[in-house]
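User: Some background: our group keeps a shared notebook of sequences we're curious about, and every so often someone picks one and asks for a predicted structure to add to the entry. Today it's my turn. The entry only has the sequence so far, pasted here. Could you supply the structure so I can complete it?
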Amino acid sequence: MAVNPENLQYTKDHEWILVEGDTGTIGITHFAQNQLGDIVHVQLPRVGDTFSANDSFGEIESVKTFSELFIPVAGEVTEINEALADSPEAVNNSPYGDGWMIRIRISNAGELDRLLNSNEYEDFTASQGED
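Assistant: Of course. Here's the predicted structure to add to the notebook entry:
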C-alpha cells in the first residue's frame, strides 16, 4: 500500500508539495520524519519571504539531528503553520496533514515538472534502503 499520497509531488530531498491553483502547500514526507525521529523544533520563514527552487526555507530539529528544509519550487510564502511552534510533533504524527509547514504562491509552475510523483518517490526511497 502506498504511504505517499498520489495527489502530491515529491523531491529527492524528501519534501512534498500539494498544488492547488497557484498555491503550493509544502511539508516533509513520512520517510523523512521517520528518518529524523521525534521532532522537537521547526524553524520556518516569514510570510512574504521569497525563495528560488531548492533554496533552504528553514530547519527541522529532532532528538537525533537537524536538517535543512528545501523548497521544491520558487515562490513567495503566503502562510506558515504557526501551530508547529507549540506542537512540532505534528510533523511526526501527520506529515501530510497537520504537519504541513508553509504555503507559497508558486512563481514558476514549469518547475513542477521536475518533481517526482508518488510512485517515482517510492522507488527513490526504496533505493535508499527503506520503504
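Suggested note for the entry: The CA atoms of residues 41 and 86 lie 9 Å apart. The domain at 23-111 is CATH 2.40.50.100 (OB fold (Dihydrolipoamide Acetyltransferase, E2P)).
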